[in-house]
């Protein structure tokens, strides 16, 4: 990946629906060269998807929760079950296996506390040992832009 590819990626991260001609003009290359580079970045998996970022409050999911999970079952079968459970809960946006004291960390969005309780009841189907939730009170910084310098 060279400097031009990084410039293309910077533009796409800001606005994924920018026309190829606009991107090409901004970085100083031809439209066809820009299109080929974008196609290569997609084929190589550098660009995973082009999506629209929604406002959670405007779609009635104003409460973000980080759920800390500890397990006493560190085996492949349990991990597969946990992966399946989290994959099938629509409000779960992200789930990570962690190092350190915490085994797993989940980011979810919900309407309210009752909605969180419903999510929790689905989550415990994975036979969890310890679950703790922290609710976001204020977002200090939020970005999807990866630094490419």
Helices, strands, pairings?
Blueprint: H1 3-14, H2 20-27, H3 31-43, E1 63-70, H4 76-87, E2 92-97, E3 104-110, H5 113-123, E4 130-135
Antiparallel strand pairs: 1-3, 1-4, 2-3
Structure description:
It is built from five helices and four strands. The protein folds into two domains: 3-43, Winged helix-like DNA-binding domain superfamily/Winged helix DNA-binding domain (Arc Repressor Mutant, subunit A, Orthogonal Bundle), CATH 1.10.10; 57-135, 2-Layer Sandwich (Alpha-Beta Plaits), CATH 3.30.70. A four-stranded antiparallel sheet has the order 2-3-1-4. It has helices spanning 3-14, 20-27, 31-43, 76-87, 113-123; strands at residues 63-70, 92-97, 104-110, 130-135. The protein starts with a helix and ends in a 14-residue tail after the last strand. The chain is an alpha+beta fold and 149 residues long.
Main sheet: strands, sense, barrel: 4 strands, antiparallel
Question: Using only CA atoms, what is the Rg?
Answer: 20 Å
The average pLDDT value, as a whole number, equals: 96
| Class based on secondary structure composition and strand pairing | alpha+beta
Spatial sequence of strands, sheet with the most strands: 2-3-1-4
CATH topology of the largest domain: Alpha-Beta Plaits
Q: Going by CATH, what is the homologous superfamily of the largest domain?
A: Lrp/AsnC effector binding domain/regulation of amino acid metabolism (RAM) domain
Strand content: 15-25%
The count of DSSP E runs of length 2 or more, i.e. the number of strands, is 4
Q: What is the name of the CATH architecture of the largest domain?
A: 2-Layer Sandwich
Helices, by number, come to: 5
Per CATH, the class of the largest domain reads Alpha Beta
Task: Give the helix proportion (percent range).
Answer: 25-40%
Shape: elongated
Q: What count of domains describes the coordinates?
A: 2
Spell out the helices and strands N to C: HHHEHEEHE
Q: What are the segments in which pLDDT stays under 50 over at least 5 consecutive residues?
A: none
């Amino acid at each position: 990946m060279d400097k031009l590819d990084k410039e293309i990626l910077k533009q796409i991260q800001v606005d994924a629906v920018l026309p190829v001609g606009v991107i090409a003009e901004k970085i100083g290359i031809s439209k066809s060269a820009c299109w080929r580079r974008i196609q290569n970045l997609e084929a190589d998996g550098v660009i995973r998807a082009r999506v629209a970022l929604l406002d959670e409050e405007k779609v009635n999911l104003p409460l973000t929760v980080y759920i800390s999970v500890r397990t006493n079952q560190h085996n492949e079968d349990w991990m597969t079950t946990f992966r399946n459970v989290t994959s099938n809960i629509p409000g779960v946006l992200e789930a990570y296996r962690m190092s350190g004291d915490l085994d797993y960390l989940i980011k979810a969005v919900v309407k309210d506390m009752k909605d969180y309780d419903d999510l929790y009841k689905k989550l415990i189907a994975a036979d969890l040992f310890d679950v703790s939730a922290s609710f976001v009170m204020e977002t200090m910084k939020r970005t999807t832009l990866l630094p490419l310098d």
